[in-house]
Fold:
Amino acid sequence: MNRREFIALSAAATVATVSSTSAIAQRSEPTRRIGALFSGGFGQSGAPVFRELERLGWVKDRNIHIEERLYGNETARMRSFAAELAKLSLDAILASSPIEAKALQLETSTVPIVFVIGVDPVSQGVVDSLARPGHNITGCSSFDFSMGGKWAQSLKEIAPNTKRMGIIFNPQAAPYMQSIVRSVEAGARSLQVEVAAIPVLDDAALGQAITSLAQQPDSALVVPPDIFLSARMPAIVALTAQVRLPAIYPGTAIVRVGGLLSYGPDFSDNYRRTAKLVDRILNGAKPADLPVEQPSKFQMAINLKTASLLGLAVPPALLAQADEVID
Structure:
């Protein structure tokens, strides 16, 4: 091959390469459409999962379009939004918990649904089993039976005079609460602490329940995962401080705004695992074949300022367990 032929061949190869690269750059995958149904209450939105999806290559307004609905803890509005999302030809829908997932399941049996946090989704009827969900729903659990015992133990350590623990919840928002009550009771038994389940249906009943519990000497409060309570966390934190009632919460974000103590799953891990489930579904996997993810990372947070205001000395052993300490 002479020099002229070599140059011509090289130029042709360069043109072909550029053309090929240009074609790849111009080729675009179909935009996927994702729905999201969240309460919009304390930290309740799809934003953390969307950020994790972006790390997996699903970028909003580039290759995914997001239809998010925040229902403001109004049950009728949640059902209305669930019906609306089911009609939008979506590729997947994010649900805050099995509560929203069930509302969506009543509207569609085909669109994949993934819940971000959840307690006992089997008892709520959204999956057949954790290992084999069996329908169009899967997701990430945020409760392990051992957590109730840890709540009881940690409250007893930080408030050693505790003789009774009240668990507040809204039975309409938390139909799974018997699982949590049994878990706390199991842990409190060896501590010789009485446990009382306290159902509340509205704000007035919530305030009365906390105030009444505080009036009983040596009492403490367990605030479990509950979408009704989630929307009222700042008010609950303020009231427990006012009536000087030690309380434990399910997430670190609550301790950052004044809650005394928290123990629960690392929700950032839930967001990552939820995003991976959605990614698998967008790549062809079926929710029925994707096991419900169980919590594997847990976090404790302590607010030293709140402890001081309540006249509580945080034991060094408990402090050593904390992943986050608020001064």
User: Anything to note?
Assistant: The domain at 32-143+266-289 is CATH 3.40.50.2300 (Rossmann fold). The longest helix spans residues 3-26.
